[in-house]
Amino acid sequence: MKLKTILMGAAGVMALGASAASAQDMTIVSWGGAYQASQVNAYFTPYLAANPGLNIITDESSADAVARLRAMQEAGNITWDLVDVEAADSLRLCDEGLAMPINADEQLAPAPDGTSATEDFGPMLVSECFIPQIVFSTTFGYRTDMVPEGVEPPTDACAVFDLETYPGRRALNRRPVGNMEWALLCDGVPYDEVYDMLETEEGLTRAFAMLDTIKDQTIWWSAAAETPQLLADGEIFMGSTYNGRLFSAIAEQDQPIGMAWGYQMLDIDGWIVPAGLPEDRLQRVMDFLYFATDTQRLADQAAYISYGPARASSAPLVGTHATLGIEMAPHMPTDPANMTGAFVTNYLWWADYRDEIDARFQAWLAQ
Q: Are 94 and 271 in contact (CB under 8 A)?
């Protein structure tokens, strides 16, 4: 089958498959950019080759997945078949009955040696509704040619708050996750006290006060692709985004960008199946998931982007980049050389407090 890609407007929606419109459409929602391209290469293209006549319609709306799925459920019209979300959002969707529970050992592939999916994924299975794909991190990139003469390049997230040593504009995500933790860490709060502190009014006030110090010098992004572009254009000195986006800009595009790994925010990303899908759509999605989350497919994705596969059996299969031929292991957020000062995002905490702190954060941005 010849693969055909059809752009469907400015919303980032495209169809992959035999035709642009078909009864065999499956809408898969993800994050766009280099990450979604890695999914197309590792999962979608080989699956389509084995399933002629199927169309995969991709959408880049994962950042708004919780709100969109709530609205779809209320309207009684679920238009998405499979959605890529972070671990904390999977917990929220599962708790609200918007994501379908999965029996990993019955509905996902075992490892090649027969190890059950539950054992192979291990602690990555943070929710009964969550099918893990990758370990990723949110970290900082900076322009190597904008580091002041005689100054050491940034090594960690705290450099973003140091406008005196590292002048220039910043870029941060337009949501609280990561930003609140960095604000407290860089204001001297011990690693193991950050989330306890964020549960208090004192802690929230302290975090916002720290963010106030750079607010006027910050571009607030909604899509992770924005920071690499702002760095490439020289519009900012330093900005946060997902480590795979920075890898793409540095290794694939040869941009003058460096990585500041210290205090990277480690997290897990994976699939949820929206609750209430008709049986025919559900069967198609589960067949795709069985294929796309097996040991080989998760290892294959690591050939296109520097995210660690969520299966233990996939890690030994990670090799070189599909086109550059470079070893991928050193570029993974979990490589020992990159783990100094790494901060593991508490997705259970964010599942409980996200709506409340989101409202506070957006109100603060609007001030």
A: no
